[in-house]
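User: I'm putting together a small comparison set for a docking exercise, and I want a reference complex before I start. The sequence is below, and the ligand is S-adenosylmethionine. Could you produce the 3D structure with the ligand included, as structure tokens?
Assistant: Of course. I'll restate your input first, then give the structure tokens for the complex.
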Amino acid sequence: MTDELKNPGAMLKPTDVQGMFDRITPRYDLMNRLMTGGRDVAWRQEAARIAIGSGAERALDVATGTGDLALELRRQGVPDVTGLDFSGEMIASANAKRQTRGVSGVTFLQGDAMNMPFPDGSFDALTIAWGLRNLPDYQAGIREMSRVLRPEGRLVILEMTPLQNKTLRNAFNLYFHNVVPMLGGLVSGDREAYRYLPDSVGAFPPADELAGMMRATNLRNVRYKLIGGGTVALHIGIRD
Ligand SMILES: C[S@@+](CC[C@H](N)C(=O)[O-])C[C@H]1O[C@@H](n2cnc3c(N)ncnc32)[C@H](O)[C@@H]1O
């Protein structure tokens, strides 16, 4: 894993990001539900539905964390799903969840999103939820994801996005920069991790710019929709 940072938004080196996610794994799901009022579940369902489109045999969920989106892809009928994450704790948690639910057809692997252990064109569909923002180079990350997609395969990116309306953005930032780190400190014991979250969102490109980055790779029909009151963007692109 390289520790080089290419995009201005990356405020932590990859090894620090990895350590941070290892630390917050035990309370990660609970914090997601609390921060989003449980909406993250529906957003992943929508991301999976869009990624699958009219059908997918093999799907990859990059930066899978505790595996919720990989398991959702399987629940929606994809026979062969892989979830990849560089945090060993996250992968252990995803595997435990899979076993508890008795799910087959899903494999969780520890690995780096910037250099994935898959040949070109391996997958029909690829998802990444709240993962891209953490990569050291967004453009290179998108290029690597598009590499492992087969031609006509779908890439779906679910990610926080800076609110476009300034008044709403200021109001949301009060919650995001104050309540979220406080809640994160109380629930996960790691206030810093939940301070990194709003900081990294603030530095992440707006939805139009991200769409441009996707178009600059070999992706076409790139479009996006804003959800969660404009705080989350769901981007889709088709591999050329
Ligand atoms: C905010 S969590 C998102 C988890 C999950 N996708 C979800 O829907 O909740 C971000 C995840 O990205 C992973 N991650 C960050 N950088 C990574 C990289 N370079 N390679 C693989 N995983 C990475 C972290 O370990 C963490 O599990």
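The pocket of S-adenosylmethionine is lined by residues 14, 17-18, 21, 32, 63-65, 68-69, 85-87, 90, 112-114, 129-131, 134-135 (CB under 6 Å). The CA atoms of residues 17 and 129 lie 16 Å apart.
User: Thanks, that's exactly what I needed.
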